[in-house]
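Subject: Predicted fold for Lectin, mannose binding 2, 356 residues

User T.R. writes:
Posting the sequence so we have a shared reference for the thread.
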Amino acid sequence: MVADPGGGGGRGGSARWAGMARAPTLLVLPALLLALTAPPRGAAELTDGNNEHLKREHSLIKPYQGVGSSSMPLWDFQGSTMLTSQYVRLTPDERSKEGSIWNRVPCFLKDWELHVQFKIHGAGKKNLHGDGFALWYTRERLTAGPVFGSKDNFHGLAIFLDTYPNDEATERVFPYISAMVNNGSLNYDHGKDGRWTELAGCTADIRNQNHDTFLAIRYSRGRLTVMTDVEDKNEWKNCFDVAGVRLPTGYFFGASAGTGDLSDNHDIISMKLFQLMVEHTPEEENIDWTKIEPSVSLLKSPKDNVDDPTGNFRSGPLTGWKVFLLLLCSLLGIIVCAVVGAVVFQKRQERNKRFY
Ligand SMILES: *[C@@H]1O[C@H](CO)[C@@H](O)[C@H](O)[C@H]1NC(C)=O
Ligand SMILES: [Ca+2]
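User M.O. replies:
I've generated the C-alpha cells; pasting them so everyone works from the same file.
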C-alpha cells in the first residue's frame, strides 16, 4: 500500500476513533474466517482511517495526481477551481466565483465514510464573508448552479458548510453545517439557508482557523452521521446522527463552493473515502442498490413542526398564551365553584341550625 502522501498520516489513530465507533456492533468483520485467522482486532480499528480501507479511486490526496489530467483523471474540476500542490481552491476570496471538483468514478460501496480536510479563510471581517461550500454524493456532477456553486434539484445527499446567515431572522448560529437529501423535487432556499429542507445540522467554528479543520461523513445502514474536528483537539465531535436515510449506490462524490457579494477562499486539502466493513442481510444484498430513490423516512424533529413554513415563528408564544388563558379560565372556574360552594355550605349550615 502506498504511504499516505496527503499529510497527517497519523490521523485516524485508534484514539481519535474511540468517539466515532459509538456503535461497534455495526462494524462487522468482512468474513468470519478473517476473524478466526487474524489476531483479534477491535471493531473500531476497522474504520480507523488506515490505508487498508482507503479507496484511492474515490480519494483526493496531495499532490493530486490524476486530477484533471488527460491520461486517467479520477477527478474533474470546473469554474474557478484552481489546483496547487497543497490544496484545491474551489473559489478564491473574490466576488461572484463558483467552482467544483468531482470524482469521475461512481461509488458502488454500500457503507462508506468520507473524511474531508478543508480550509475556509479570507480577509472578510465578522459576517462579511461567504458563502461556504458543499460536499456532495449525487447523481449529477460538474453542473454549475446556485447551490454553493452547484446544481439545484439534485438527486442524492448534500452537506452544506454554510458560513453566512442569509436569513437574518434565523435562530441558528453560523457557521452552520447541515444535510439535505433530495430526489430531484426539492429546491434549496438560499435566502433561508436551506431551513425548510434541512435534515439535521449543527453549529461549528470552521472559518479562519490557524489549525487544520476536518469533517467526516459516515453513511452506513441508512444512518447518516456527520462529525467535525475543528477545535485542534484531534478528536471527532458529533454534529448530527440521523437514521432512515436511503441513498443509492453509483452516485458521485464532489465538492463545490460559491461566492456572491461576499467571499472567502474555499480550499479542499483532501477527501479520503473509506470503505466500512458492514454485513447486510441476504434480502438487502439482493436488491439493486443503484435503483434506490434518495429519501428520508424519519419524522421531522419537533422544532420543525412548531415552525410555520411562512417564516413566522409565532407558534411558540401563541401556545404559551393559550396555556395561560386556559389556566386563567380554570382558576376563575375554581374560584366561582369555591364561592358557590361556600354560599351553599353556609346556607345549609344555617338550615341545619334551624332544624336542630
Ligand atoms: C420526492 O420527494 C417528495 C418530497 O420529499 C415526494 O413527495 C415525492 O413523492 C418524491 N418523488 C419520488 C419519485 O419518490
Ligand atoms: Ca447561507
